[in-house]
């Protein structure tokens, strides 16, 4: 009986682990070109230089405005001169609203302010990053992968250099 119970528990445990592994998603194509390389999935970036967040799946910035947090497609004018390609980004996964824990993230990652030590997706030569719409090789990647536009379930399109979410501005190419 003990062996049967052990076998049952082992099968249940293995099934749970298998399901957990299947649910891991990859969202490289959704990450902006200024995001850092090295991450197959990102929920949020914390930007210590400006104490703001970027919600990758929803493609919006989250920044403080008085005592509240604003979600917007673009950063406000006071942050427009920030070079997101060179600014340090901290990847935050598993926290659905990291800005509600802002004090924790400021304390943990405040020392990253002013660091310029990450390679942005735009500058990567790894093919997996060509899926990002802001990557210079994206158009060729789409041609080489028929039926895949670089964004699962998204609209077709090439490399839109005017997309604020992928490109902070014309001075930062």
Automatic annotation (TrEMBL):
Looking at the record, which segments are called Disordered? 110-173
Q: What is this protein called?
A: DUF3300 domain-containing protein
The record's keywords, sorted A to Z, are:
Signal
Basic and acidic residues bias locations = 114-134, 141-152, 161-173
Signal peptide residue numbers: 1-20
């Amino acid at each position: 009986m003990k062996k049967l119970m052990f076998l049952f528990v082992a099968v249940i445990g293995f099934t749970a682990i298998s399901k957990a592994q299947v649910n891991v998603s990859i969202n490289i194509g959704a990450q902006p070109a200024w995001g850092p390389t090295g991450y197959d999935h990102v929920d949020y970036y914390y930007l210590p230089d400006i104490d703001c967040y970027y919600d990758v799946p929803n493609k919006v910035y989250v920044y403080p405005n008085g005592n509240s947090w604003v979600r917007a497609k673009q950063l406000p004018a006071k942050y427009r001169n920030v070079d997101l390609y060179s600014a340090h980004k901290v990847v935050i996964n598993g926290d659905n609203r990291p800005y509600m824990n802002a004090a924790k993230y400021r304390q943990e990652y405040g020392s990253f302010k002013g660091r310029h030590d990450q390679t942005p997706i735009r500058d990567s030569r790894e093919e997996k990053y060509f899926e990002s719409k802001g990557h210079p090789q994206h158009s060729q990647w789409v041609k080489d992968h028929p039926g895949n536009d670089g964004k699962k379930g998204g609209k077709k399109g090439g490399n839109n250099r005017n997309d604020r979410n992928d490109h902070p501005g014309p001075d930062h190419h």
